[in-house]
Automatic annotation (TrEMBL):
Domain of life: Eukaryota
GO CC entries: extracellular space
Organism for this UniProt entry: Ameiurus melas
Official protein name in the record: Olfactomedin-like domain-containing protein
Signal sequence extent: 1-18
GO biological process, one term: signal transduction
Record-linked Pfam families: OLF (PF02191)
Transmembrane intervals: none
Coiled-coil segments on the chain, per record: none
Primary location group: secreted
Residue intervals of the Olfactomedin-like domain: 135-391
Length: 396
């Protein structure tokens, strides 16, 4: 009996213990689960943190990128402001130019109405220049072809066709100093060596210097050889000096580094008569001056960004100067700089344009507005270049 009791007690004890131990196991499992859960949460929390970090990093890179692009924008705007400043500068100079066109009011008494009239005249004159420019709707875009017509005269010289509408006369200036030019009736009589019509020799009152002469409206314009910077206007009819003037800042250095004889280079385009020279006080850059062919007075002067160093010539088309460069050894001539007085054509728009390779170098280049041709003197060969012209983009 006792034993039975003992056995029962033991059994019940065992049961309690086993009950206890099953409870412990449950607890253990429970805690383990909780710990696992917590671990999982910790891991996901870590992952969240990591992705947050990544996002922060991404954001900061993006910010940095944006700051960089803002900086680029800033410098672009700065460049824009600078270019506006240069334009304003130019406008200011134009205004100054208009002022200089007016007589000095401090020393002369002028009635207000007369002053008004003069202001209006000056303004309409300025407008006339601009309007003329707008009518000029073509721009040079390349060299279409080359034609070698003749070999005559000196190694250096100049020949050109009369730009007067319906005139076919050819003028021939051999050498860099002489006072006799030849006038041919036409290109045919110039090139035909068997031609029975002899050219007319025209004796100028003073010899010329260089190769930059121009013929315009029945007059020849050239650099008086015995002066530093005197421009002569001589009638082709009676060979008398019709007018003369001194071109300011000109005559100190040759216009083009590779054409040492020429100090004043005249040009004729759709807008009229021009002269190009190099100014040593302006870094040897080229300066273009619009001349009033009637009164031989300066209409306006532009300091250009084109260098005279290594230049061999230039021509003007519709108020845009194109400068031709080469090397001392006489390589291939190419146009590498332009200057447009209307600011509508930029050097950046123009690819470097090469001339077809021929002899060594050009001592003169004269554009003919109707023919759209350049009459060039290439090492003693009289050559023409036909230009490709495009319609100018209208800037409003
Ligand atoms: C001047 O030009 C004429 C005609 O082209 C020529 O006969 C003469 O030899 C030249 N004079 C000089 C000094 O070059
Ligand atoms: C010029 O004349 C010569 C002989 O009179 C002749 O041989 C030559 O072919 C002619 N040249 C031209 C371009 O007519
Ligand atoms: C010479 O001719 C021009 C026109 O070409 C004329 O204006 C000028 O008065 C003439 N001079 C003389 C002295 O005849």
């Amino acid at each position: 009996m006792f034993l039975k009791l003992l056995v029962m007690l033991f059994m019940s004890l065992c049961a309690v213990r086993s009950q206890r131990s099953t409870q412990d196991v449950f607890m253990m499992e429970y805690f383990q689960r909780r710990i696992l859960e917590m671990e999982e949460r910790l891991i996901s929390c870590n992952q969240d943190l990591q992705s947050m970090n990544q996002r922060m990093y991404d954001m900061s890179t993006e910010m940095r990128g944006q700051v960089r692009s803002v900086n680029v924008l800033k410098s672009e705007i700065q460049g824009f402001v600078d270019s506006i400043a240069t334009r304003v500068d130019r406008v200011e100079r134009d205004v100054e130019y208009l002022h200089t066109k007016l007589p000095d009011t401090s020393s002369v008494e002028i009635s207000d109405s007369l002053l008004d009239q003069q202001v209006n005249e000056a303004q309409s004159k300025r407008k006339a220049v601009v309007i003329q420019g707008k009518e000029c709707s073509t721009r040079f875009s390349g060299i279409k072809s080359q034609k070698i017509l003749k070999k005559a005269g000196d190694v250096v010289g100049s020949w050109l066709k009369d730009p007067t509408v319906d005139s076919s006369k050819i003028y021939f200036f051999s050498g860099s100093r002489n006072n006799t030019l030849l006038q041919f009736g036409s290109l045919k009589s110039f090139t035909d060596s068997n031609s029975t019509t002899k050219p007319k020799a025209i004796q100028l009152p003073r010899p010329w210097k260089g190769t930059g002469h121009a013929v315009y409206d029945g007059f020849v314009y050239y650099h008086n050889a015995d002066t530093r910077n005197e421009v002569l206007k001589v009638s082709l009819v009676n060979r008398t000096v019709a007018d003369r003037m001194l071109l300011p800042t000109a005559g100190h250095i040759p216009t083009y580094g590779l054409a040492p004889h020429t100090f004043l280079d005249f040009a004729v385009d759709e807008m009229g008569l021009w002269v190009i020279h190099a100014d040593p006080d302006f870094g040897g850059n080229l300066v273009i001056t619009k001349l009033d062919s009637k009164s031989l007075s300066v209409e306006h002067t532009w300091d250009t960004t084109c260098k005279s160093h290594n230049a061999e010539g230039a021509f003007i088309v519709c108020g845009t100067m194109y400068v031709v460069y080469n090397s001392h050894s006489g390589g291939r001539s190419s146009i590498q700089c332009l200057f447009d007085i209307h600011d509508s054509v930029w050097t950046e728009e123009l690819p470097v344009i090469y001339f077809p390779k021929r002899y060594s170098s050009h001592s003169s280049m004269h554009y003919h507005p109707q023919d759209k041709q350049i009459y060039a003197w290439d090492d003693g060969y009289q050559t023409t270049y036909q230009l490709d012209v495009k319609k100018k983009l209208q800037v409003t």
